[in-house]
Amino acid sequence: MNLPGTTSSLRRGTPRAAPAHAGQADAHSDVSRLFDASAALYDRLNRVMSLGMGERYRGEVLARAGLAPGMTVLDVGSGTGVISAHAQRMVGPAGRVIALDPSHGMLEIAHRERGLETLQATAEHIPLPDHSVDFLVMGYALRHLAQYGPAFAEFARVLRPGGRLLMLELVPPPGRFTRWAFNQYLRGIIPWLTTLGRRERATARRLMDYTWVTIVRAAPPPQTLEALREAGFTDTAFRAFGQVLGEYMARRP
Prior knowledge:
Blueprint: E1 10-11, H1 25-49, H2 54-64, E2 72-76, H3 82-91, E3 96-101, H4 104-114, E4 117-120, E5 133-139, H5 148-158, E6 159-170, H6 176-194, H7 198-217, H8 221-230, E7 234-241, E8 245-251
Helix pairs in contact: 1-4, 1-6, 1-7, 2-3, 6-7
């Protein structure tokens, strides 16, 4: 996830809630509360959604994008830290991984269950120095951005010259029937398979409803690639993987 609404709080311990930017909190408070409420279910939802193949895929795509031992990695919209944990194993003890997300609930799990360094902040306001990151990854959070320009400018700012950018995203499947089937899978089957309690199922359904809306409303790949180039990125590329997975890669010159 990645939503405006909080300033930053960097620590290796459990993250504390940070005050919201004026004018943003009201517009995004409902969504922020939804992600906080969904934090305990999030990993289960991901496993069901990916049919158990998500863990392997994340590791493979990080390697394909050039992640290597010793790198400093920023995971923007980290959620509970699934991608961050993969990155931490790959960069090894000489590297560093920072899991960044506006959701206190998500970061609490990322720290408590995965031992990750966490940073409570948004993609539009990253409280890190210029040129301090070798590799920036955003996993399934691009569609939550209200505007690409401010976030992509921040990505370019914190990346070192030659630094790599990887963004993973869900895309609407082609064809009316496949799109209908994916809609039913997200909003009906996944909440039913993932949860047992009525309250948990209702929370999962709300999150999947929101997920579907953001997928179908997201900008298409050509528009996203153009926004990356406008932010100064080079070697921009998009690759579709299967019916609903998309990979954006770019480099900071």
